[in-house]
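SAMPLE LOG
Freezer: B-3
Tube label: C17
Construct: single chain, 74 aa
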Amino acid sequence: MSLTTAQEVYNQVIHDLPPAERLRLATMILNGIVKQDDGAIDDRDYWSEQDQADLVQFSMQYANTQFLDEDITS
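STRUCTURE (predicted):
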């Protein structure tokens, strides 16, 4: 079995792991990235226009799901 993309690995290997093991794996991956620190982590102390746009988009999506859930349950 040759897995070439992250999506394939997730679908065929990780998806069926129990949540605790998936969290453990995620922690291992993130710790590995931090240790490499090849500029993978952005440590700027300001927000770019793209950062701000991403925040607005996420906030709107979150608010939309909250209002939809509220309408359904009311």
